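Quick one: structure for this chain?
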Amino acid sequence: MKVLGTLVIAALLALLSYWEISWRLVHFEDGPSVASPTGRLVAQVRNLPESSDLPYGSGVFVRRSFPPLWASSEMVLAAYCKGAASVSWRSERHLEVKCEHSEGPILRPTINLGITVSFVGGA
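Got it. Here's what it folds into:
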């Protein structure tokens, strides 16, 4: 029974690893991870894949600090930016995104993490 339990745990860890690696292969980092003031949340700018709502744009993703899986993150903003976008926390519940917006729509999906996101940029 111990062997079966060990195999099940190993299989679950392998699936989680595959899920995370697959997600990271299409969402390349485009800046450092930035933790919220308490460290409860982490935000990062990542490139969006061609198949996303805004292909080849930048997406801002937020995840809880635990578990440390970006595949479980939530996209809070997406836009086409000239140059690199940056993120900073103004408070535990307020994330600011800076980006020189170049074209197309700015996508602001529904956020389920209890935070607000402000966009600072020009056209």
